[in-house]
């Protein structure tokens, strides 16, 4: 009698399950995107504070996310992924209320600013909770073998939501007023809370609970490779406009569009590559592709070749996060998955924090074109580190 063949995997069903979870990431990043383009103008023009204060208002959210990573990981592991997401959604709703309060107290600029900053802190903490919660929920529901797909779709949801939210926020403020942003944040959060209410949660995994910094140490080798690769993203998004100006070109926004389109296309087309070939090989191939794109930007004699370079960089970087994420999560027990995911995300945050001052110093001494050369070399360094990591034994 012939051996029974295993049932085929229904990828459509898996994708639908993933989308039902990363929906909350989409809501969270839509709420992050809505105010991002109008906040600096509100703080500077309406409240009368300096551009530095406007920058701090934007950056405070990301700092809150970074500092809340240990709490978010612990909440997902100890309280459950669904509970972590619920707390995050409540934080977004409260941030919306504070945004409305800031708009209502605009005649008292300092009070209005302080209330707005409090809302930004809550939004940053909510981002951390929902980011870790959705990943942990998706992996817990579908199994560790679907880690790459969950991370990939989570990234698509976040980038797509910001792309939609930023122009929508500008339109809302232009057509109505600033207070409508707060109302939109609270309404979206309440909508997501209604959706999640009856959704069954995954059971809390019992077992060893690693402290955050212990999990951080376990995932750090993969995290450092992620940082080396992701500095290229921070470099491109921060300095491409100034690079174009230095070259005497126009259309820097198209460079960012090429990066974003190729980034999302790569995730959609090659979402199964990590499961098929393994995390480390995919990460190395992608970082090499990214380095090639960054090198092309460095040497580009025309805007057309710069667009090609940006597209290659986006295409390559796209799968680095999920590919290395699969390998990073193998280094922690399932009972500490949330802590591992939170710790791993810190390294992407770190890349964005490093890119500005590091590449600003390079540009100051060598010119803006050379920042892409340095970013390409760092990506190649990431390839070498990943090659070494691929030869080490697995912890779990």
Automatic annotation (TrEMBL):
Keywords: Cell inner membrane, Cell membrane, Membrane, Transmembrane, Transmembrane helix, Transport. One of its GO terms (cellular component) is plasma membrane. InterPro entries: MFS, MFS_dom, MFS_trans_sf, MFS_Transporters, MFS_YhhS-like. Residues 175-396 form the Major facilitator superfamily (MFS) profile domain. The chain crosses the membrane at residues 21-43, 49-72, 84-104, 110-139, 151-170, 176-196, 216-245, 251-270, 277-298, 304-329, 341-362, 368-389. One of its GO terms (molecular function) is transmembrane transporter activity. It is found in: Cell inner membrane; Cell membrane. The keyword Transmembrane applies. Coiled coil: none annotated. The keyword Transmembrane applies. Gene3D superfamilies: MFS general substrate transporter like domains. Pfam families: MFS_1 (PF07690). It is a multi-pass membrane protein. Belongs to the major facilitator superfamily. YhhS family. This is Uncharacterized MFS-type transporter BV82_3121. It comes from Pseudomonas donghuensis.
